[in-house]
Amino acid sequence: MVVTVKPQSAADDDAAFGITLREAEFQAFRDLLYDWTGIALSSSKRNMVCARLAKRLRRHGIHSFTEYYHLLHDEAIGKEERQEFINCLTTNKTDFFREPHHFDFLRDQLIPARRAHGSRRLRIWSCACSTGEEPYTLAMILAEYCPPSQGWDAHILASDIDTDVLAKAQQGIYPEERISTVPEAWRRKYFLRGQGARRGQVAVKPELRSRVKFCQINLMSDDWPLHTTFDAIFCRNVMIYFDRPTQNRILERFTRYLVPGGYLFLGHSENIHWLAEHYHPLGGTIYYLRAPEDTPPPPRLLRFTQPLTRSVRSAPESQLPEYSLILGDVKTAKQPAILKTLLGSCVAACLYDPETGIGGMNHFSLPGSSDEGTNTRYGVHAMEMLITAIMKHGGQRHRLRAKVFGGAKVLNVALERLNIGARNSEFVQKFLTTEGIPIDAQCLGGTRGLIVRFRPDTGQAWAKPLAPTDLTAILRQEEAFGQELETRIAAPPDDQITLF
Ligand SMILES: C[S@@+](CC[C@H](N)C(=O)[O-])C[C@H]1O[C@@H](n2cnc3c(N)ncnc32)[C@H](O)[C@@H]1O
Fold first, then answer.
1. CB-neighbour burial class of residue 498 (10 A; exposed 0-12, middle 13-18, buried 19+)
2. Where in the sequence numbering do the catalytic residues fall?
3. What is the mean pLDDT of residues 269-294?
4. Ligand 1 centroid vs 466 CA: distance in angstroms?
5. What is the pLDDT of residues 423-451, one digit of tens each?
6. What spacing in Å lies between the alpha carbon of 160 and ligand 1's midpoint?
7. Domain map of the chain by residue range?
8. pLDDT at residue 182 above 90?
9. Residues enclosing ligand 1, CB less than 6 A?
10. Do 142 and 156 meet the contact criterion of CB atoms below 8 Å apart?
11. How far is the CA of 402 from the centre of ligand 1 (A)?
12. N or C: which end of the chain has fewer CB within 10 A?
């Protein structure tokens, strides 16, 4: 197949050519891009490459891609053109408050943890920052929660390989609609509205801009100009363009630039489970850098607060209807309510759609299999039932977010032998990852039962250890279920077929 770009304007007509990108030329450009940036283009990107590079050919008044390939290797003009070539072929989609749970995590976990340890120093690297929305979102969080007046020394380094997007980021000027995802009060506080010729645009205020230092860094290059370590690296939505060896090389290098116990934030579709020896997953594509002698951080009892990007609903919790769930229950709520459950080795998944405020909770044990397909005591069906019920009330599957609890290793012989707590935790994490539902928070494992309360309309969740009397009652319930399972696992029905 030969791809041809037709002239699109009078200027193009002047150049009087349709440009053809042959397969061999496409391959040559793919190789160059891979060598210089690590970006591995799929073969389906041929039209895109043809259209974007055609502009460069027109700019130089040349008529074939082969000629352009030679130009890229020309000593005199090659260096500048190589940068243009890269700028043409990067994908720069970004937003303010993209994947907002990452910024909630900074506010609710990272910053309070630093404060609790008496540290007021914070360094964050946004290493593929595109046009600046990500580092400026970080800057707003630091301005709000790490003010210099309280002794904070908090700064952001923002870098990208693409010099065009970096220039835009440094300018900090955006069409007004770009900041629609910024909370209303912060729009007024951190942006200036354009007048006259600048009408319809907004500019980041200088005090916010001064928190961010921009520079060009190619993640593929051997020498990153970095002389510091970071508490967090935001490397979101760029790993997807790299192949596995490149991802590994970069992610392993990050371990040298993160402080012990630092955090790595990836994009929603980026998973690095194979690097578990370095990075412990906390859910929602947030990873914790393990210290060499480290075991994963113990599950913390978290009090999750209001997501940054939703307005606070005012109904006091004490006035809300409260529903208690036991093993096998699935409950959704359209109106403000509290869903509550007590957990030992079982797991409760709390799912919610932040836009409609519709969500729900289940309480189950073990993945289950096809013959348990209609029994909500088992994970697969309990999860599917919950998702279906939320969608029936108007929630959208693609917007769902999760908080998960339970899976403790409780002191009970039957349950321990089946390793139920760990299997439950592993199941719920895998299920949600496969379904592409981000885990905003989790409190899984440990040895203590939990009481969990969840407000589906806001996504808030609270967890605290169970009182000994409650735990005993829960263990009795789970033990009965454990014994039932043990019998089934020990004695499969005669007619069971084994596949080899
Ligand atoms: C889709 S944007 C992601 C922006 C932002 N992190 C976000 O999640 O909204 C990907 C960015 O990665 C940059 N990029 C691609 N290859 C890179 C490399 N080798 N080194 C540094 N940045 C790179 C691109 O220029 C682009 O701006």
1. exposed
2. 52, 160
3. 83
4. 45
5. 888 889 888 887 788 888 888 888 788 88
6. 6
7. 3-89, 101-289, 320-490
8. yes
9. 37-39, 90-94, 98, 128, 130, 134, 160-162, 165, 218-220, 236-238, 241, 267
10. yes
11. 27
12. C
Query: SS3 for 55-117, per residue?
Result: HHHHHHCCCCHHHHHHHHCCCCCHHHHHHHHHHHHCCCCCCCCCCCHHHHHHHHHHHHHHHHC
In this structure, which topology does domain 101-289 adopt according to CATH? Rossmann fold (3.40.50)
Determine the distance separating the centroid of ligand 1 and the alpha carbon of 491, expressed in angstroms. Answer: 54
Q: Which atom of ligand 1 is nearest to the CA of 130?
A: 27
Digit-coded pLDDT (tens) for 136-152: 999 999 999 999 999 99
Measured CA distances, 165 to 9, 85, 157, 170 (Å)? 25, 14, 15, 9
Residue of the CA atom closest to atom 26 of ligand 1: 92
> What number does the ligand 1 atom closest to the CA of 87 have?
25
Q: Which atom of ligand 1 is nearest to the CA of 267?
A: 8
pLDDT given for residue 482 in this prediction: 63
Considering only the top CATH level, what class is 3-89?
Answer: mainly alpha
* pLDDT above 60 for 294: no
